[in-house]
Model the fold of this input.
Amino acid sequence: MSAPAARRVEPVAEVPISVTVNARAVEAVVPARQLLADFLRDDLRLTGTHVGCEQGICGACTINLDGEPVRSCIMLAAQVDGSSITTVEGLASEGLSPLQQAFKDNHGLQCGFCTPGFLMTLATVDPDEYPGTDGIREAISGNLCRCTGYGGILQAVRTAWNRVEDG
Amino acid sequence: MKPPPFLYCRPRAVDEALAVLAEHGDEARPLAGGQSLVPMLNHRLARPGVLVDIGAITELQRMERRASDWLIGATVTQRRVERHSLEGCELLSLAVPFIGHRQIRARGTVGGSIAHADPAAELPAVALTVDATMVAAGRDGQRAIGASSFFAGPYMNSLADGEILSHVIFPVLPSTTRCSFKEFARRKGDFAVAGVAAAVDITDRVVSKARLTAFAIGSNPVRLPGAEGAIVGRSLDAADLDTAAEAAAAEIEPWDDIHGSPRYRRQIVAALLQRALQEVAP
Done:
């Protein structure tokens, strides 16, 4: 018996996807060119995911994709078929999560534009992989803040991660 | 900006991907992690008619320790490499944390970075230093391409039309090989202004073999035969480091851009090479 011929794959302009977003099953047909960030914001109305640079630099659009922090502005919605996503809206069921509360208490935000990205990065990574203050700096190095400065953010993370200041 | 319109498919097997690439020719491009290609689409620097997403092809996600090497599938993420310490592949483990940020490494792939051949990228420098083999898959089967002939200029590789990079073979280095990876960037995670990679064999407290590479200084990473020759047989004392650094600065021809003049890049390469050799010294 000869090997079966390769399945013929037809490129399409509209892509059906099924994805879990904040524990909710979503079925959609998305334009091939649609960015994941735009799918979340425009189609699902989850506007907590912010779009800053649209080129994978600023980190404002960071979400949790299958347990990893990723930039949703440099992913296509079509690529997440079969995946599970958490956005900032999924961080707390009511009120604020401890991480969000720590940002609030420690002046970890000013205008708040970058905050969802910081929160999603920090809520997704394992704190043990990022020890000390240098570890926190490394963890947030892929997120840019242009107004608060990073001092309040560092303090917020120390609080949320139960760390004493080490310089 | 947003990507221009294109058609998209997500094949499950290499044969399926190759069939689409063959059918659509120049119009089609493979999409791996997308951490370089999607920004290029957003900027409209790339306008492919068809994107062939190879992210769901399981045979490209293999990561296997074999008798004398590691086989790393093209779409193995950089994060996956970061999380596993690949015994005998220390240079790869040292280089990966320099790639972008955690969010980039979560999606960015080993094969994507190597095929993209960004002059400032880390993985092409690692591949050249350890003499990795790139294995291309085409409709006529597989073909091995050595690192010294794979990179064909800035953002160019020597894959033929219709081929994709299937996997990369990183040789396992002997325990006598010590590795170091250094780069300088204005901010952590930015593209390097210049960088060096070193894999140095030490026998009886002297260098028996040296493989040194500079990157982010020109079209592609380059080996540093002058500096390599200068340290073979030496114990890597302070004078040896100076000699090697001078040789490296003299033998490279760095390009000139807004991030650094040739003179500045020569100085960076010299300084980084000294630090790298200090680290591997017996």
Observations:
- The radius of gyration of chain B is 19 Å.
